[in-house]
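Trying the structure run again after the queue cleared.
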Amino acid sequence: MLEMMNKHNPFPQQLVIEVTAACNQDCIFCGRTYMERPKRSMKRWMWDRIVEEVAKESPYTEIWPAFMGESMILGDKLFDMIAYARKVGCKKITLNTNGTRLNEKTIPRILEGNIDRLIISCDAHTPETHEIVRPGRKTEGLAAIYLGVLKLSEEIRRMRLQKPIIEMQFSVFDENEHETEDFKQFWFEKGLIVKLRPKVYWSGVVSDGNHRMTLGDHRKECLWSLDTACIHWNGNVVMCAIDSEGKYVAGNLEMQSLQVIWDGPLKWIRELHIRKRFSELPEICRKCPDWEVKKAHAFFPNEEVKQDYEAYISKGRTFTARHFWKENIEQFK
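Done. Tokens:
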């Protein structure tokens, strides 16, 4: 099994890059809201170094220029960075945003062809609920976000573009779960994908029980550890996308390549997961229930949209056999 894992995972299949830790929302469920480390932005040379290595070593690694911040507040700087990643040969780029910066200035840049998938995290279907789960600081409300998404979708259809694939994300919590079906049906009618994500604990950073999953005793390998690498704005490569504070730093890209870190400290983490030696993991991982959260399930308005989405997700991937979340997909239907 270990040999198979190494064969399937010569390089991260997803790379979460914190281009900025700044954000215009203080979401009640997000680790960033409670984060103590500095909330700065990545230097351009660091970004260039990362995407150049990806293009050389694994062009189909899916790049996510987001982590503990809203990357679109960088404006044109973000889109220039994404354009450079595409120029050097990165073939899969996904942008995750809260949607507050979708407007007449940013939509043309999104449509330049450098973004393959756009995930818009709303987590609400009414302004009242949106303000509860995603309180903002001088940001547009839910109505403006919806208008921005609809305008973007309209432009994609008008221009007959194949990308970006738009994915409307709804993270389920006690405060918003009553709006799940309305959210899903609204966006289905617009022909868009809807992703539902279960509650997240952020490895203890978010302590309120209303934002935590309840798990059984049977733990499985964490997909974040097996196929994903995560980078803070200062170049620190950390345990996973849940490690908001950087409690486990595997290395730093100013001094090491991502390949060296992936084949070193992060390989050790992967081996412990695959061998199910969970008690030997670093504390942040050992006590974390969020290994379940990557089981977020996408719903599709029609079969054609589903096929296009699945073709993109699987494109270039070398690591699929252990995506155990499919075993439990029924619980999200």
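Confidence is low (pLDDT under 50) at residues 1-8, 321-333. Worth checking whether this holds up in the mutant runs.
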